[in-house]
Amino acid sequence: MTETTKVHLLRHGEVHNPTKVLYGRLAGYHLSELGQAMAQRVADAVADRDVVLLASSPLERARETAAPIAAALGLEVRLDDRLLEALNVFEGLTFGVGDGSLRHPRHWRNLRNPFRPSWGEPYREIAVRMLAAMDDARRASAGHEALLVSHQLPIWTVRGAIEGRRLWHDPRRRECALASLTTVTYEGDTVVSVAYTEPAGDLLPRAGKPFSAGA
């Protein structure tokens, strides 16, 4: 009989970002109070799960999201660079047409190829590193569950690769809210299902509330 293993991909909670920049891999961006509440909500939701491995992107917002989960599960957090946010040339800038970096012609060349994309790390490279991190987690937690804390674009990209979808996409259509879980279930080394849940769904910012840039 093959073993059933689950790998949960958790997007971090809301970040304190009053200047609304695209923070990407920049240091110094921490969870807001709401983001901390989101992280605790996820910790409560997974406290009775059979999670035996917990890993995180090294960025502050991901590690802070992992912290209450580690406490709830009694696990140490492994840092894994493969779970990092995607590289982006617009890091540290506001991103918009009328009030951001897109109004400056010098940035337009970075938008010439949305299919790669030309503004940052290629989608295929993101998928490859995320799949490698997931495979290692699956093997290390075989027959149990693993939880990996990452970022919206890497999670959505690897989900697309697993489900056989094209990797380029409209960012507005990503199903990967703050503090959401994308759960991949394996029988042996074969993916048998992908599920999506929002343990902190009632805490998510809605229309009319401040926007949190980045992922």
Automatic annotation (TrEMBL):
<dbReference type="GO" id="GO:0005737">
    <property type="term" value="C:cytoplasm"/>
</dbReference>
<dbReference type="InterPro" id="IPR029033">
    <property type="entry name" value="His_PPase_superfam"/>
</dbReference>
<protein>
    <submittedName>
        <fullName>Histidine phosphatase family protein</fullName>
    </submittedName>
</protein>
<dbReference type="GO" id="GO:0016791">
    <property type="term" value="F:phosphatase activity"/>
</dbReference>
<dbReference type="InterPro" id="IPR013078">
    <property type="entry name" value="His_Pase_superF_clade-1"/>
</dbReference>
<dbReference type="InterPro" id="IPR050275">
    <property type="entry name" value="PGM_Phosphatase"/>
</dbReference>
<dbReference type="Pfam" id="PF00300">
    <property type="entry name" value="His_Phos_1"/>
</dbReference>
